[in-house]
Amino acid sequence: MANFNTHLFVASAASAGVALVAVNAHLIVATDILWFVFLGTVGGMLPDIDSDNSRPVKLLFNVLALMCAGGVLQVLKDSYLPYQLLLFAVGTYLLVRYAVFALFNSFTVHRGVFHSLLAAVFFAFLMTCISYYFLHTGVLLAWLNGIFIAVGFIVHLLLDEIYSVDLSNTRMKKSFGTALKLFSYNDIPASVLMTLCTLAIYRITPSPKPLNAVLKGTNWHQYFKGEIFEIIAKYIGY
C-alpha cells in the first residue's frame, strides 16, 4: 500500500486538478481553490482511520477531542466556575481521545468497510451536512465540499489498489482488491450498518437540486477532449 506522504501528495494534486476544472466551469472561484484542495487532502486521509496507529486516525481523534472539549465549554460556560469548566473540558478531551478512540479501534479492522466506495459516499454526505448545518454554507457549496471529500477518498482507494500490483514481477499482491470495493465483503454486519448510516444521513442532506441545475448547465463534453490539460497548464503558468 502507498505510504502516508504519497497519499497526501497525490490527493492534493488530484484535488487541485479537479478544483481548476471547477473554476473553469464557474462552479467555484479561484480564491476557493486552496479550501477545496484542503478538503480533497482530508478525504485522501480518511480511509486510513481504520488503522490503529495511522497518522490520520490520531489526527482525527485529536481534532474531534478538541472540538468536543470546546463544545462542552460553550454549553456549560454559564453554569460552572472556571476551574470546573477546565476539569470538564480536560475530562471530555481525554474521554474522546483515548476511551472513544480505543472503542473505535476495537470495532474496526484495516481495509474493512472504511476502505470502500460506500464509505466515500457516507463521508461525502456527512461533509455536505456539516457544511450546510454547521458551517452555514449555501446548498451548492455544501455539496461541492462533500464531493471533494469523496474525490480525495476515492483517489486514496485507487492508489492503494495500484500499489497492490507488483509490476516488476507482474503479479498481484494479497492486498489486491481489498481497497477499492463497493463495501466490506468480509464483514457484512459492518457494511449493513454503514449502509443504514449512509441512508440516514442522506435523508437530512439539503436538496441537491441547485447542484444538479449547475451541472446540467455545464458543457462537460469539452473536458473529455483534452481541454482539461490546457486548463491546468494555464493555471500553473505553462
In short:
The chain is mainly alpha-helical. It has helices at 4-24, 33-45, 55-76, 82-107, 117-134, 139-162, 188-202, 209-216, 227-236, and strands at 165-166, 171-172. 66% of the residues lie in helices and 2% in strands.
Describe the structure.
With 238 residues, the chain is mostly helical. Helix content is 66%, strand content 2%. β1 and β2 form a beta hairpin. α1 packs across α6 (139-162) and α3 (55-76) runs antiparallel to α4. The protein is globular.
Mean pLDDT over the full residue set: 80
Approximate shape:
globular
Overall tally of domains: 2
The succession of helices and strands, N to C, reads: HHHHHHEEHHH
Helix coverage percent: 55-70%
Q: How is the largest sheet built, in terms of strand order?
A: 1-2
Beta-strand percent range: under 5%
Number of H/I helices: 9
- Report the uncertain regions: 165-172
- Let me know the number of strands: 2
N-end to C-end Cα span: 33 Å
Structural class comes to mainly alpha
User: Largest sheet, if any?
Assistant: 2 strands, antiparallel
Radius of gyration over all CA atoms, rounded: 20 Å
Entry keywords:
single chain, 238 residues, mainly alpha, 2 domains, two-stranded antiparallel sheet, 9 helices, 2 strands, 66% helix, 2% strand
